[in-house]
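Per reviewer request, we include the raw input and output of the structure prediction for the construct analysed in the revised manuscript.
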Amino acid sequence: GHQLTSRIPGPTMFVLALLGVGSALGASVAVGHSGSHMVSTASTIRRGKPFPVYSEQFQVKTIESDPAHGTVVRQTIVQDLPARRSRMVADGALVQGHLEEIRRCDFEPMGWSLVIGGRTGTSPTEWTCTNTTTNPNPDDCQWSPFWDIQANASYVGVEKVQGVSADKWVYWYQGAEFAFWGTKTTPLKTAEVVADPGMSTWQIEFIDFKAGVPPLEAFAPTLGVKCPQSTPPTGDDRDTVTKERPFGLHTAPRVASFAA
């Protein structure tokens, strides 16, 4: 069944699929941001061609579907792992409308995170927004690599995906079989191809992948969303908070979304 978490299997998950993350290719790619996205401990492929090294500074759109429901969610994912900032936007039945998660740990003395949501048919001015202060310390605010794959993956050859000849890797995780397709420079698709008994298979296509440092505007919330002041920090962090933050993030900048 679908859930608001990364579909890439692994020890932890973040909604990217519905982005959150912290596992390995196979979980739902991201509708959330309190972690990282496609994550695993893999460093080499068990046999055959090595898995590509994709940039952890990127923008990409995704389309997730399953045999029973067709398209269930469309996402935009923006991540800059070295800078420790990310944004996920999801629209569709899987999130019952609109879901947006922005996480910024590239500010001092305190970082922040926004969670924005609204039912289908509502406008940005009607959406809810929570604005939470976070400790930007790298020990407390972490991302795992997004583009990684399980260590037991095997290279199985080339297939056509989105009209492109793509390399394919397959692997098993907790009784289910997953696959990933991509070229040397572009991720194209991931899927659960053999599901656990009673569960549905699914696929996520990666569209318009752009490697490179995303512009700051790509991390801003959708135009029209009204976000409150961030929640006050607790404990020892209370005395370190300043009244001004770069880019006005304590009140959420009003910049148009990267999502189409």
